[in-house]
Sequence to fold (607 residues):
Amino acid sequence: MTPGSLTGFFRLIGGLCIVWTCAVSVSLWLALANESHQQEDLAIGEARTNALSNFGFRRWVSDHGGVYVIPDSMTPPNPYLKVPNRDVVTTDGTALTLMNPAYVLRELTSRGYVGQARITSLKPLNPINTPDEWEVKALQRLETGEREVAEVIAGDGEPVARVMVALITEKSCLKCHAQQGYEVGQVRGAIDTAVRLSRFDAVIDSQKRAIAVGHAGIWLLGMIGLGAVGYGGHRQISRQIDTDAALRLTQFTTDNAHDPIFMLRPSGSFFYVNEAACRLLGYSRDELLRMTAFEVNPAHTRENWPDVWSQLKKQQSITFEASFLAANGQSIPVEISANDFVWADQQFNVAYVRDIRQRKQEQARVTELVDELSASNAELERFAWLAAHDLQEPLRQILIQVQSLQRQLADRLDEQTGKTMGYISDSASRMRDRMRGLLDYAKAGGGREAFADIDMSAVAAEVVTSQVAILGDLKASIDVQPLAVIRADGPQMTELLTNLVSNALKFRRPGTVPEIRLWSQATATEVIFAVADNGIGIEPAYCEQVFSLFKRLHTMSAYPGSGVGLAVCKRIVERHRGRIWLESEPGKGSTFYFALPKISGDKQSPA
Fold:
């Protein structure tokens, strides 16, 4: 999908909103119009009911030949009724007058006993029953055969429902109307009833309001629904647009990735290759997609391919080196990261490949340089060892001869010559000690034993035993906590702890009983050993320098020594692929730490 899809969706939702609004509006208009028609029907129905009711009264009166009543001011004798015995006197002297059906109905309606109605005719006896314009037309229609005329007409400023029911001349009617020439069966006149539509305004208006509210609710629900659909659709389309964009970007980056990418089917055929894969092997994409892994990697065959695929499925990801066969026949060393991948219920091997020709060349060059450096270092160590070893004998002879001359000429030498002979003897002694230290340093780099599992607690016990005499003389205490087992050169571990303990005893504070503590602590990858004392300590600025060869921080007279011991310690630790450091505070003591690798499944080898 594209952003244009989102625009089209919004247009669709907008169109649906318009259609929905129009549909609800039309439905509302039809419903309101129906209510208006219903109002007319209600009014006509009531008018018809009134007409039929009045027709029943009139029929009863007509069937009885009229009704005699006592005349009064409101009901005088009907002057338009010219029939025998219209006015009579009863035997008791009561005067009575005859009321014909039209007179009776007029009286009933005028007094509100029945609905508004009147009897009218095209040939009325009483002028008051003369028909109006609408009644004339209705009577004419009745004379053509219709038995009822019902219409809504404009009354006095408002609509009125009028119903006219035909009065058919019967035998009883001839008593009054025979003189007008009517015969039985003819339309003699009609009963006209009228009902104002406003009588039903309250009911109809209430229904219209209910309809309007209902339609408004329906419209609102529809709009909410369309809004929800629009919102959900917008989110879905936006996500789809983002997904499509991400897929296009992924496709672009995969196609144009620097490293080759291959996607293989379980059969070994290629499902996808990128441009870098084509450049690496010198094939076009169409050519590669027609090939199999067996043609590119000779190490894979149809026979061992099921095992390779099964191993990948089990481990999910495998990284290994291989050689690819290019189109020109060249063998290209590569590093492959194969990954098990399932898409659309299909399994694939997605292989990310890196051309390692340059790496191989660099590794070969590094190996060559390491070999050269190792040979150079070995030669240098041999030279240092030979030089130190071969120079010891001349120095020893010089020292012997000087000391012999000092004894033989002790009483004949002047003071200055005696001092000079002493300087020569001391210098030769210091040179001898340095030569011995240089020999120890050279030996520390090469080692004497193969690595084995070494119990450092046993090594510490051996060191304490070797120092028991000086410990007794100084009344020193040494606390050895249980130490870890490591893989190391045993004799060198003894030399390392001996040097550190001797260093702690040598640099003791005057007037203070030496206290030495040994302990170890394991981490995830290494074991840290510590040798702590309460000696003189040193300034933090010199904590690195003390491990340098022949580095001294004190005079020979104050603390004798060659300045080689800590350098030898560092060389031993580095040979074991470890590290050594010092934490110290003047006047409070020092703690020497050295960390060596933990024992693992692979046997540790010396550096």
Observations:
- The chain has 15 helices and 19 strands.
